[in-house]
Amino acid sequence: MKTDVLVIGGSAAAISAATTGKTFYPEKDFLVLRKEEKVMVPCGIPYIFGTLENSDQNVSPDGGLLKAGIQLIIDEAVSLDLKKKICKTAGNQEIEFDKLILATGSTPKIPGWLKGAELENAFTIPKDKIHLDQTLKKLETLQKIVVLGGGFIGVEMADELNKRDKDVTIVEILPHALNLAFDADLSIRAEEVLMQRGVKLRTNEGVKEVLGKDKVTGVLLNSGEILDADAVILSTGYQPNVALAEKAGIKINEFGSIKVNEYMRTENFDVFAVGDCAEKFSFITRTLKGIMLASTACAEGRIAGMNLYKLSVVRSFGGTIAIFCTSFGDTSFAAAGVTENLAKERGFDIVTGTFEGIDKHPGTLPDTHKQLVKLIVARDSGIILGGEIIGGPSSGELINLIGLAIENRMTVEAILTSQIGTHPLLTAPPTAYPLMKAAEIAAKKHIFG
Amino acid sequence: MKTDVLVIGGSAAAISAATTGKTFYPEKDFLVLRKEEKVMVPCGIPYIFGTLENSDQNVSPDGGLLKAGIQLIIDEAVSLDLKKKICKTAGNQEIEFDKLILATGSTPKIPGWLKGAELENAFTIPKDKIHLDQTLKKLETLQKIVVLGGGFIGVEMADELNKRDKDVTIVEILPHALNLAFDADLSIRAEEVLMQRGVKLRTNEGVKEVLGKDKVTGVLLNSGEILDADAVILSTGYQPNVALAEKAGIKINEFGSIKVNEYMRTENFDVFAVGDCAEKFSFITRTLKGIMLASTACAEGRIAGMNLYKLSVVRSFGGTIAIFCTSFGDTSFAAAGVTENLAKERGFDIVTGTFEGIDKHPGTLPDTHKQLVKLIVARDSGIILGGEIIGGPSSGELINLIGLAIENRMTVEAILTSQIGTHPLLTAPPTAYPLMKAAEIAAKKHIFG
User: Fold this and answer.
1) C-alpha span between A419 and B305 (Å, rounded)
2) Closest chain A CA to residue B405
3) 3-class SS at A93?
4) Burial state string for A193-204 with b = 16 or more CB within 10 A and e = fewer than 16
5) What is the pairing mode between strands A216-221 and A226-228?
């Protein structure tokens, strides 16, 4: 079998790379090779444990690929010969290609020192439908659940399991849940919402061991305390899937990710890598990062797709701004760029502006939420380095607006001169739009020192 | 009485100018002089006719001004002596100032040729609480209502009155409701939503006369047909309030607005004008416009505030992008920049990209809306000239993102390389984010012609 462009992988980065590539090079054949019969919407996975009825409701449709004229093969890539440009599969197919895009994703990472992670009812959350269905089934009869790790997946899993009336406790070694994404002033608010909803939190608290003989019975904390548990969710991070690339001689960096340049090209001219398996560096701090997000993955996918046959400097990647958002209860949390904490740690001279208002106006309208915006701004230039939001459902698109400002190195002055559409039912009031007020507060500090 | 900066007016532009000015020049005294005891949230006015209980729920709070240390005086400015820099009021006060910001707003405009507009139960919608309360009271007993003009105010008034079970018909002379903001493909959808909700629409239909002896009894259309009516809402536009400025010798342009430059300064060095009373030109077409929007007014207010004592080119106004959004039923409509129609009419060589997807993901989640994004793009450069959205409640912030792209002359390539945060409960899916797909479609046409 032969194709111009072979994309290995089936999730966000693969789909973006294939469809964007086909748009920009319509004369080329594109083939997506993935091992999963059905692909999970990655960020939808926690929701099959609460809001959704089952994993079938979280299947990413293949219609977009097929309508674009992209071939789809369900099979597993087992080896690559980069000289001959051939991919061999578990189903004994040989696929010849001209260009290759690796979008092989990531799998859950369990800390090597953690004893008991292999016990029955200790679950990881991979992006695998069959595995998730088994976990869902087993969890039905389990009541007391300890979630190890209070990052996004941990927090979302905890809140969703809580919706099914489970007894859920999050254990997080950092001072706060969501501590890498938000400064303490915001993550404390996230913790309050979780606790009001019935999720228990143990922060500043390390885990020594998952306890049990065959099945999980509890968790031993560093403090010596034991938490009883019928099940454990291991939301302790993910590692890039690079075995296939590594075996083929493609360079892997010190984070275990496939090394790429700003066009998402590996050190092999005809091979690109995108998404969780590919190297990430920070747009702001310029250092390598282990972050894995659909926002980054999709941008990388589009950039690889556009640069497959012709490079263009206007289509390159400047580093991840780690943009994301989540929601529990009726409160949403969103962040982009660096936190105040990280900026200071890395030596940036910054000012911040924080303003809390409302997300509709007048506030007497039904379903009005509070909306808090915090901006992290370079003191000398006024360039926006980061943003954090607590608000209602519009927080998702609002953080995308802030993200666009960050990626375009816009200043608080540029925000202050911007025209922002407002409407009673849809946004904050024009005279107290929290992003503007936060920009104003930061501008004052940036100008007057 | 003496102040450094006198702001005349009480609505969005005045508040923005005063608070931003005080932030940038904290050592100066600011005084806001307005004639209304209580100020209406301007874009909230239609909602007091349906969703809200009364106009008290739509009062713009004065806390922001007062907390910022800005003095507030309720009185009416009646004359200005620009040589002596003195403002005289109806209450016989004399206010000396160093800098003056005119934010005198606009009042409803009734076409001169329209007979019967003076009849009882023919209502305009001014931004005046007392007048609105009277209108509300009278409308209680009136059932059959004809709304003259299907722009934003007309459409919002119609939908709100319909919520109180009135029999409402909109008469619009253009081919579609909201025809200046949206291309026909989108405004037809807006009309469908309105009609499903029970609002009747007569488009392509001019009005000759409001009929009645003392009170309104009907409306005579150009076609000769008569629509029975107990009341008429005259949503036929607004005119700038410039009498005070004109009398003081400040230059007025051919649209009847106060002439200003990009720092919102009038031809008099110490006098600025912002909001509905100030001259507007289009960011894209570069021609004068009569548009009046809180988004433009607030940006102008901030720019005047920042430039009062020190000009800065990074704090100047590039023209209105006419950004706004509205919502009826559970569908929102939003637009920024130029429509396809206007762009072609003005001679732009453009391509467009339109994509319809969903605003949550997977689409099985409760309250998922369709989301349509249309981009209008310069064919040669790929620069985004306009955007239109139909979607759910996130449309308001999404159009602000598109607006930021337009004001920063971003290209579709810049959008395609952007990182967009997505979340099941808050946004479209990362692989089929309608803005991205629309950019991709437009990029293909811009590159391949």
Assistant:
1) 15
2) A404
3) coil
4) bbeeeebbbbbe
5) antiparallel
End-to-end Cα spacing for chain A: 65
Q: What is the ipTM of this complex?
A: 0.95
Residue A151 DSSP label: S
* pLDDT of res. A447: 86
- A-proximal residues of B, 15-74, CB under 8 Å: 15-16, 19-20, 23-24, 26, 41, 43-44, 47, 51-52, 57-60, 64
Q: Alpha-carbon distance B202 to B283, whole Å?
A: 32
pLDDT in tens, A297-311: 999 999 999 999 999
Residue range B151-166: average pLDDT? 97
Q: Which domains does chain B have, with CATH numbers?
A: 5-107+239-315 (3.50.50.60), 122-236 (3.50.50.60), 331-448 (3.30.390.30)
Angle between helix axes A12-24 and A294-307 (nearest 10 degrees) is: 30
Sequence-distant (≥ 6) Cβ neighbours of residue B261 within 8 angstroms:
none
Which tens digit of pLDDT belongs to each residue from A49-93? 999 989 999 999 999 999 999 999 999 999 999 999 999 999 999
A300 CB contacts (<8 Å, ≥6 apart)?
Answer: A13, A16, A17, A264, A274, A275, A278, A317
| DSSP annotation of A317 | -
Inter-residue contact A336 to A386 (CB < 8 Å): yes
Show residues of chain A in contact with B420, CB under 8 Å. Answer: 295, 298-299, 323, 400, 403
pLDDT tens digits along A193-240? 999 999 999 999 999 999 999 999 999 999 999 999 999 999 999 999
Chain A residue with CA closest to B401: the answer is A401
A19/B440 CB distance under 8 A? yes
Determine contact, residues A38/A127, Cβ cutoff 8 Å: no
Averaged pLDDT in 10-residue chunks for chain A of 449 residues = 97 97 96 96 94 93 95 98 98 98 97 95 97 97 98 97 97 96 96 97 97 97 97 97 98 96 97 98 94 96 97 93 94 98 97 97 91 97 98 97 98 96 95 96 90
Q: From the list A52, A314, A423, which residue is nearest B325 (CB)?
A: A423
CA gap B24, B315 in Å, rounded: 12
Within chain B, how many helices (H) and strands (E) appear?
11, 25
Residues of A in contact with B181 (CB under 8 A): none
Instruction: Please compute Rg for chain A using Cα positions.
Output: 23
Place of tokens 């607004």: B238
